[in-house]
Amino acid sequence: MNDTPRSPAQAPSRRVRRAVGKGWKVVTHTLSSAWDHSIFSKAATAAFWQTLSLPPLLLGLLGSLGYVGGWFGPDTVEIITSKTVTFLRSVFSDSVVDQIIEPTVEDVLRRGRADVMSLGFVLSLWAGSSAISTFVDSIVEAHHQQDHRHPVWQRIFGLLLYVIFLILAVFTMPLVALGPTLIGRLLPDAWFDVGSRIIDTFYFPAVGLLLLIGLTTLYKVALPKSLPWHRLLGGAVLAGVFFLASSVILRWYLTWVAATGYTYGALAAPIAFLLFTFFLGFAVVLGAEFNATVQQFWPARATRLEQWRIWLAEQSARDPSPDSGPVTNLTRRLTSSTTIRLSDLIRPGDRQPESWPIDGKPVESDAAPDDRPALHDHTAPHDDTAPHDDTASHDDTASHDDEAGGSEVPPAQTELLTVEAVSPSSPAARPSPESPDAAADDEVFHQVSQSPLRKPS
């Protein structure tokens, strides 16, 4: 065995190697789990439903904005549309924005907001929620919780998430689009130039941070057995970084393809849009797999609500009463600090009742009243309030409640020798203190007073 002490410089290197090894295990496990869950198939499914849900999404979003646009100004919808198209140009390619997204937006705006109250808008909610439902299914399967929620309810749950997303987006997008302009109006003239540069610098990072918060919230609410919000932030960051990197590479690839002369004709823009949505779905599923891997390597404590549910289930399932429901049984367990025992309720020497009401059900005694032996419980409570006269005469054959804890019924075949009680003040009661055998006499006297004398056979 090598007992050579390690130098202090070796400790950081060992920690670095250990961290690198652990990180490599996380990466390999994430990729293996994503492959086992068919991440390419799920990303393709998400891309299809995102493409199919784009017109209903824009119809619901822009149509709903028409109702609240007047609260923020006369041209709120047009400003939001312009800001959104400008932001999408930094994510998608120009052909996708010019040939798919912008024409669809203009078509929705021309129809106005009357379609919001129509049957077509209600049907668009179901079609638009298909992409959200696909993401929910992928997130739940990544965490192996697909058996905790019924498939029909999960589809309805995806629809509810989509409606909540539309409501939040209707009130959030005007603030995001008009926020820089409103802030610029509030700034003094001396601070306008500096404030404008700060707003222009941090505007898109702030929008990206808002999207990360939304994706992390989706990771949390999609799970039947949720995890703490901060434990899911890593997957959202990974998904955002992966999608931005893939969009940059895809834009470069599409530019190179257009420069070389290779073209798909009229299908070029739809194919490019499908590729972008494919990588978006791939990023969301990959982030969910990463969160599941982190949870497997470093399990998080259950939330307080989950701990409360588990505790209630355990208390309800422990010693259920057949005549009471789980709520009554749980209430009985919560209100009773200790377990009720008959030996704590019956005093020594008392006759045990033939029935004792516990939980509303009488307890039948096993033995007859005459055949039942007397109780011997030295720990049972006794009445200390009764007066004790130390000068009174004591019967040595009587039971001492304070010492023995109860009376004992002797066997029938044993005869007792009656000993006459002697007053403690009598000279014959105790030997003289001056006697040399006083200690021995005290011991004999104590034994005689504590035990019944048996007549020799």
From TrEMBL:
GO terms for cellular component: plasma membrane. It comes from the Bacteria. Residues 361-403 have a biased composition (Basic and acidic residues). Residues 447-457 have a biased composition (Polar residues). Its main location: membrane. Pfam families: Virul_fac_BrkB. It is a multi-pass membrane protein. InterPro entries: Virul_fac_BrkB. This is Ribonuclease BN. Residues 419-438 have a biased composition (Low complexity). The chain crosses the membrane at residues 157-182, 202-221, 233-254, 266-288. It is found in: Cell membrane. Keywords: Cell membrane, Membrane, Transmembrane, Transmembrane helix. Residues 343-457 are annotated as: Disordered.
